[in-house]
Amino acid sequence: MTRPRIITGIDLPLQPSCGSTIWASDVYRQLAPDFRTTFLALPSHEVWQHGFEETVALRATKQSYGPNFAQYTNALTEEVKRLLHDRRPDLIHAQHLGFGLALAFARAAGQTPIIAIAHGTDAIAATENDQARDALIEIVAASTAVAVPNAAMAEQVNALTRGRYSSRLVTVPWGVPLPEHPTALPTDGHRLLLVHAGRLDSNKSTITAIEALKLTISEHHLTVIGSGSELPRLTARVAELGLSHRVRFEPFLPREVLWQRFANFDAFLLTTKQLEAFGLVAVEAQAHGLPVLYGDLPGLRRTLGAGALAYPPGDAAALAARIDRLANDSGLRRTLSSAAASNARRHDITATTAHLRDLSKTVMRRARV
Q1: DSSP string spanning 9-57?
Q2: Residue 327 lies in a domain
Q3: Average pLDDT of the residues in 160-164
Q4: In this structure, are 86 and 217 located in the same domain?
Q5: Is 225 helix (H, G, I), strand (E, B) or coil?
Q6: pLDDT by residue (tens digit) across 253-297?
């Protein structure tokens, strides 16, 4: 029996440099028995063992929001029309509620049904930028269903679209590939080795982790792994606070390498201050046995469960107090480590793909009626 074809993609380079491309690779590798997937992306010189059955390099030159965004999306739309004509997909998965490619899918789809899939930055961008908000509304309006990772994101999208499409919002809980067993074992020392990993932008608020380190009683150490626009500001702040001997910066690491590194740390810091769609890297850290200290944003308490300690987002003093508390209570560390590993089992990537598989089949079945 011929497998139905899904066309999807993200107008970013085809490489594992952000959570959405990594998530997509995990998901479509698992969907392969049921669907053929064609993934559209920008060209990349990096060799990546991704999970996409077929990839197509987009030709349009990427443009961010601004005066050239409309021209970019127009060029993408024409390119996507040709691809849809050639591939004849049964379903479109439009990744991100605001990216140019998702907007091109919305405009070029014709009678092909669309499931839009929300990612972490979408609601933030739509709140701060008129073009992003207009793109989000157009993409949601063109979609049969909109997959969101949790209730908090559903509320954001519903508010941005003024409740007009609430019936289309479907929660598809995100997940991660799980290791066989935790690799980070709790220690008894009073000086913690902390890790923060991910994109370095203002919303991730890595500055909170750095400023918290200055306020702790003990001299804990922090490793920041990642890249992004905030790096110069972060390195300058480390020097200004005299923390160069306690804060180490490392570039983005492939996920498998990052997982190996988790065993070297005592806790993971998730310092996002506005909106976090799910916190995939924090769940990955939990799966390896790391307690997580996190900004208490909507949805994260449910996602991270009992294996984490919350603090008010952006409050460096409160985070410092949580770090010292964890450092001074080895029993708490052991309890949180065990709870973190148990909590991560709730977020297996196989559950994500099962939800998305069922939703995809339902949308295709309705389109045939």
Answers
A1: EEEEESSS-SHHHHHHHHHHHHHTTT-EEEEEEE--SS------SEEEE
A2: yes
A3: 97
A4: no
A5: strand
A6: 888 899 999 999 999 999 998 877 778 899 999 999 999 999 998
